[in-house]
Amino acid sequence: MCLIGFSINISTAPHGVKYFGTFWIVIGSYASVPGLVAWHGNNLAGQYKRGVGMVLQIGLGNFGGAFATLIYRSQDSPRYILGHGLEIMFVGIGLIFVPIAVFVYKRINAKRDAAERIALEREEKIQHSNQELRELGNRAPNFRYTL
Fold first, then answer.
1. Which of 42, 91, 111, 118 is 20 to 30 A off residue 3, Cα-Cα?
2. What parts of the sequence cross the membrane (predicted)?
3. Mind spelling out the 3-state secondary structure of the chain?
């Protein structure tokens, strides 16, 4: 949705159409934030790692407001090609890397499922204490990434 909105706003469309494009930007960006924060938090094991990871995600995300003042310059008015172009690039990067992350998470989950299945077939009992599992975090054999 953001990509549609920024594409409309970078064009030479009339102001009313660009206003409509701005709604697409807002719908696409703000509506996705809670889901992305939750997804990121669910895929970090351990309270400290999760806490720091979410602080970094939210903090760096909010830094975008300061960044926007540098890329939306008054001399680029009325089309703001630099600002909208960079936003299109960032949205495009997200559209590339989210499917890659999903692919990698699925692959890691499948490997852990296979290792668990093999251990069950061989009737191996690998015991880890709760402390060991906490210390392993994302690398714990029973940890699965949320998709």
1. 42
2. 19-39, 51-72, 84-105
3. CHHHHHHHHHCCCCHHHHHHHHHHHHHHHHCCHHHHHHHHHHCCCCHHHHHHHHHHHHHHHHCHHHHHHHHCCHHHCCCCHHHHHHHHHHHHHHHHHHHHHHHHHHHHHHHHHHHHHHHHHCCCCCCCCHHHHHHHHHHCCCCCCCC
The answer to whether the beta carbons of residues 140 and 45 sit under 8 Å apart is yes
The pLDDT value recorded for residue 145 is: 94
Q: What are the pLDDT digits (tens) for 84-115?
A: 999 999 999 999 999 999 999 999 999 999 99
pLDDT per residue over 129-145, tens digit each?
888 888 888 888 889 99
Identify the domain containing residue 112 by its residue range. 32-139
The tokens describing 49, both together, are: 């790692």
Tokens of 50: 């999760």
Residue 75 lies in a domain: yes
Residue 146 belongs to some domain of the structure: no
- How confident is the model over 42-55, as pLDDT tens digits? 999 988 999 999 99
- Whether 15 maps to a domain, the answer reads no
Amino acid at 65: G
